[in-house]
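fold-stage: in
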Amino acid sequence: MREQLSRRRFFQSMSAVATAGTAAAPRGELGTLPFSTPAMTRPGMPFVNPKKVLLWENTRKEIRESLASGRVKAAILPTGSVEQHNEHMALIADVAISTLISKQVALQLYPSVLVAPPSPCGYAPYHMARKGTITLRKETFQAYVLDVLDSLKAHGIRNILVLNGHGGNHQPLLEMLPV
């Protein structure tokens, strides 16, 4: 029977993995991790993913060269909301999830797709009774999204997916579509 792993032991194990560069912590003191994982670091391994799909990870030169080469065919704009998710989830969950999904898709389609900076807030006036919620007016949210889309188009990106992570943004986004 495997012993219960405390938070402290878990982080000690992760530290040992990062230091050792192996999938298991050294035997004896810490035992092994409760799951298998590839080495976190190896000599010469970069800490930042070399496939820079997040627009803000790139330098001006890298973006300019990617656009000029014609490699970038599309962009994804993640949207979400900063609002309650009951007692168990972070307020940023909608934005974080849509950004993570966007990044995973872009990595699969690398180097053709970039991820634009996510909309930091969405439309959630009905959650304002719950502390921590931040909402934009519908018109402000729509203007933000349109401004980001216009900026991407100005740089030659014509194919843009708005990946919405919050149900309250759905109607404002639909209203923006041409009739």
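fold-stage: in (second)
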Amino acid sequence: MAIVPISKDDFDRRSPVRTPLVQMLAIEKSWFADSDRNMIGAVIFDKTDKDWNYVVLALHEDGNYRWIDGNSSYPDLALAESKLVERMAAIDETGKVVETLFSDQDDSKPENTSVLFNDINFELKKYFKKNPEHLHQLSPRKFEELIASILKDFGFSVELTQATRDGGRDIIAYLRNAVCSYLTYVECKKYSSENKVGVGVIREVVGVHNIRRATKSMIVTTSFFTQDAKSEAEMVENQLELKDYDALKGWLANY
């Protein structure tokens, strides 16, 4: 099946899922599709790194096109376009993409890791690895999606709770094996760097933890914790984990 150039209007009619932050930092330059329009792709200029990248999106069951593959750091537009067409043709021929998503990672990556149909994709996590300060530009909900995606890469099964629910558990994460099931509630706080997470949040999360009987609870923030918050957490250290901006950068270092 042929991979052919298409117009931006044709590309946009496919309802591609775009991440707002990427739209701010990059410019789309050319667009491609297979002849049946089951898969589309774009070549993008990264305004920060001054290089060329491509993304491949596939038709999802909800009617939107979502990211399934991509690559970066090409020196010119022509090379990026040829690599995009080559990659789309290979995906179209084999119907497979998962095995290439983490080709630059070591063998310790969990076998069930997948970022198919994920709005916060692998390339974006690589971007945040290089530019963690831009985490503060995410909306709170997008930050929750990012954390859920990272936890999924670590081997968890994850579920985002409704955005309007009460605090204490933005993400429900499970680790399951033949021996046991490990349930973690994750509360995400997308705060500015100068706005530290206080003791009130600790008590709220611990309260939900005790009521709902999770194995562990965790608070993840783009900021840091006050000393009072850390002291309170130490009293329940077997129940609660605190992950601050530095810990989050450590997670992103895996990409």
